[in-house]
Amino acid sequence: MKVTVSRRAHFNAAHKLYRKDWSDKKNIEVFGKCSNQNFHGHNYEIIVSLTGKINSETGFVYDLGVLKEIIKEKIEDKLDHKNLNIDIPEFSNLNPTAENIVVFIYNELRKYIEKDLELEVTLFETPRNFVKYSGDNLK
Ligand code: NI
Fold it and tell me: Model-level pTM?
């Protein structure tokens, strides 16, 4: 029997989407407002879900207080009030799209979550636009 437990968290960050090897015209065609030269911000919401067996001693799948601290330390403290393109080395040559950010968050958290737990990260870039990642074997 497996149960999923989730924690919601939040950070604000700025970004812009563009390719240096494309003209301004092409960047605007592809990325629209998100290629605005002077950056813009989003209120990002994340939901981190862990799926696993209930521990018979504690009744927990995972201690959500511990998950809260991991998310705060490894994600919120790192990304909140940052300019993703400039402040986060992983995005110096990678567009900080919601897709790339969710993979980044997943990879960071995966280091601290025991391997017997499944991890899924959902990232809301706006209240209506969101992406999900739970690892894959595509590489
Ligand atoms: Ni944007």
Answer: 0.94
